[in-house]
Design a protein that fits this description.
Blueprint: H1 3-11, E1 14-15, H2 24-30, E2 32-33, H3 58-64, H4 66-71, H5 73-84, E3 95-102, H6 110-119, H7 127-133, E4 140-146, E5 152-156, E6 166-170, E7 180-184, H8 185-190, H9 195-206
Antiparallel strand pairs: 1-2, 3-4, 4-5, 5-6, 6-7
Amino acid sequence: MKKEILDRIKQLGGNIDNVKGNSLLEDLPSITFDTVLYQRPTDTPWATAQEEEPIYGIGDFINENEALFKENKKAFYDKIIQKYFRLTEEGFGQMFWQAYPFTPFKEGTEDYKEWNDEFIDEETDLSEIIKVTNNPTPDFILLVTSYGFPDNFYITLSDPDPENPTLFGTDHEVFFREVTNEGNLEDFLKTFMTKEELLEIVKKRIES
């Protein structure tokens, strides 16, 4: 993978110490996170990025801790980081680093036993993947999951650019019957906020 990708993963809280640079199959599962991931707000048809909460519910949390903000700003900002940047399943709109293989086409694997019948079903649509990889039966890595739509993000091990592979999104309700091209991994990682970037957004809004 590109150095820029590994640098960004580290900035987002990932441990890249065990990355050897041999292959995506070895390197991605060797990366671990002790925190969840949050995508920064973007403009939508109903609100601008500035009007959106950077993390779901953080406005209420800020209001509840107004006294601490007035008394000790550093402690207040530390409390925000402690609450949100941890491995929690409480719903804040976060995403989760997974990075494990998914092999519905590889005979002899558990994924093949469980999923191959569905993947050879005519309703499965891998056309977006085939456009990029020219491979109708790829091995995958499930990279990230989320509470949103799509809720699963995969790369393929046959990606023509293993230094910066393409992500594909699908949802558990339309699992690989609908697949979207989510762009390359470097750009995808740039959509997430580091701790410092979140605090910059919060400070700009409550201290201005």
